[in-house]
Amino acid sequence: MNDMNVVADKDVTVETLTVKDGMTLNGPSSLLGLGKQTYEWGTDYTAASDGIVVAWLDCHTDKRQGNLVGQVNGSTRAAASAHRDADGSNKTLVDYCSITMPVRKGEEWRVDFSQDCDLPGGTSGPAARSLCWMPVGNPADS
């Protein structure tokens, strides 16, 4: 097979591209698509492409405690916990946590969030959190 150089002022579309022994790109390129930012906690999603799920949790005020559990096809793939207790002898401060988990096209994924609070009446308010999907190689939403 001969080397092929493509120089174009416009987009180039091919039906199938097979790369053997590596590929060199000159100029800007990205394999990450634009992520949809409106995912709900505790909801099952089916990945329309390969991608990465990222969840982030902030428990840096009051006595917040939060947990993240990420699942793919019903199996736990990632988990993290953040908690803040600056009173008494405990003085445990893990203010932030995050999980990152790869998901293949067609797999079902979800991230669950739970929160606990040591303040009377659970008055600490909700922890700040974010759940994102970043497609790889395809701008699909989920």
Describe the structure.
- The structure is a single chain.
- This protein is mainly β.
- The protein contains no helices and 8 strands.
- The protein has strands at 45-46, 51-58, 64-72, 75-85, 92-94, 96-103, 108-117, 128-135.
- The strands form 2 sheets. It has a 5-stranded antiparallel beta sheet, with no helix packed on it. It has a 3-stranded antiparallel beta sheet with strand order 6-2-8, with no helix packed on it.
- A hairpin with a 6-residue loop joins strand 4 (75-85) and strand 5.
- It is elongated and about 65 Å long.
Shape: elongated
- Find the structural class using helix and strand composition: mainly beta
Query: Strands of the biggest beta sheet: in what spatial order?
Result: 1-7-3-4-5
Major sheet characteristics = 5 strands, antiparallel
Number of extended strands: 8
Radius of gyration: 21 Å
Separation of the first and last Cα atoms:
37 Å
- Which range does the strand content fall in? 35-45%
Contiguous uncertain segments of 5+ residues: none
Helix and strand sequence: EEEEEEEE
Helix segment tally:
0
Mean pLDDT reading: 77
Percent helix: under 10%
Essential attributes:
mainly beta, elongated, 142 residues, 42% strand, five-stranded antiparallel sheet, 0% helix
Summarize this structure briefly.
The protein contains no helices and 8 strands. The protein has strands at 45-46, 51-58, 64-72, 75-85, 92-94, 96-103, 108-117, 128-135.
